[in-house]
Amino acid sequence: MDLFEGNSSNKKSLDGPLWHQPLATRMRPQSLDEFVGQSHLVGEGKMLRRLIESKHLSSVILYGPPSSGKTTLAHVISREINADFVQLNAVLDGIKELKEVVKAAQTKIRLRQELTLLFVDEIHRWNKAQQDALLPHIESGTIRLIGATTENPFYALINPLLSRCQLFELHPLEEEDVRAMLQRALLDDERGLGKLPIELEEDALNHFAQYASGDVRNALNALEMAVKTTESKEGERIKIDLATAQSCIQKRTARFDKTGDEHYHMASAMIKSLRGSDPDAALYWMGALLESGEDPEFIFRRFYIFCSEDIGMAEPYALNMVHAAHQAFTRCGMPEG
Predict the structure, then answer these.
(1) Among 224, 306, 318, 216, residue whose Cα is nearest residue 270
(2) Which of 62, 132, 133, 277 is the most exposed place for a label (fewest CB within 10 A)?
(3) Which residues lie closer than 8 Å to 203 by C-beta, 6 or more apart?
């Protein structure tokens, strides 16, 4: 069965992506009104929304976890301010590609008075020289920059670049935001699954929203997988129950990076739980660290520091206990350790 059968004119979105693209790509918001989440930035009366609606947006840095909507927001902004959208990936592109973009932008300004919005994904991957190359073109107004990063910009980006850009932090999407996007995909008969007779049980919808861990792309991909793999006879509805949803998302996505902010957030939460005499919370955060792939040696180092700095002479044997536990773990290894 062709999931997207019908008139070929219905196989394109407002921006022209073809029908064969993943559901998450087709459902990418096209305007501020369609954008879900980040109400602290783009809600009615908020600063970023006012800047966009005034058409006087300067260069900005969007900082937030993966799948929080940085790339989508950049696309939306380019449409709202009627700018030509050009994207570079800091992993693949460098100064050569930047020079080509700047040259084209200068031509557009001279011939058509058209603004170029340059979106640099993973901008923290660019070294100092590459980031420096952006500065004169931002100052001259040749380009408007939107840089996206998952790293703390105060550590990952150079100060001259930060001083020329406005910084906006995006938060992980809430469960309600993911649920809203799933329901929109089910109802949208142009870009989504609205033309299909889908019956999604409430428990299945809740499972998709909860286990996506704020990742709309993950939730939409799981929904699309469920629809494609659920058999139904001609004329019958495609019924997606909880068991089907569980088979499509079996495990929550852990937001963790061994060298990023989440690494230190979890470790800090574990130590603060110990300081607050909350062993259950401490065990939870230690389990979260291990589940996310943290090196147990790092956890033991934190325990050594905690025993020395926080407990000290209040319990002199605490350090010996951690040392003995460390030796036992080293001999046994995971998972018995």
Answers:
(1) 306
(2) 277
(3) 241, 242, 245
Residues in the chain, how many? 337
What is the DSSP-derived secondary structure letter of residue 131? H
Q: Are strands 144-149 and 166-169 parallel, antiparallel or unpaired?
A: unpaired
Q: Is it true that the peptide bond before 279 is cis, omega within 30 degrees of 0?
A: no
Q: For residue 174, with 0-12 CB atoms within 10 Å meaning exposed, 13-18 middle and 19 or more buried, which class applies?
A: middle
Asked if 24 and 221 count as a contact pair (C-beta separation under 8 A), the reply is yes
Residue 235 backbone phi and psi in degrees, to 5: 90, -10
Q: Which residue, 162, 138, 152, is CA-closest to 63?
A: 152
pLDDT average, residue stretch 108-137: 92
Distance, CA of 327 to CA of 307 (rounded, Å): 16
Q: How far apart are CA 215 and CA 193, in angstroms?
A: 19
- The answer to whether the CB of 123 falls within 8 A of the CB of 90 is yes
DSSP assignment of 268-319 equals HHHHHHHHTT-HHHHHHHHHHHHHTT--HHHHHHHHHHHIIIIIGGGSTTHH
Contact in structure between 293 and 256 (CB atoms under 8 Å): yes
Could you tell me the pTM of the whole model? 0.71
For residue 23, pLDDT over 70 is answered with yes
Q: Give the Cα separation of 49 and 39 in Å (integer).
A: 9
Beta-carbon-side half-sphere exposure of residue 192 (alpha carbons within 13 Å):
18
DSSP labels, 241-253: -HHHHHHH--SPP
- Kindly report the backbone phi and psi dihedral angles of residue 144, in degrees, each rounded to the nearest multiple of 5, phi listed first: -105, 125
Supply angle C-alpha 183, 38, 21, rounded to 5: 50
Q: Per-residue confidence at 256, pLDDT binned at 50, 70, 90?
A: low
Distance CA 108, CA 153 (A): 30
On the question of pLDDT at 268 being above 70, the answer is yes
Beta partners for 145? Answer: 118
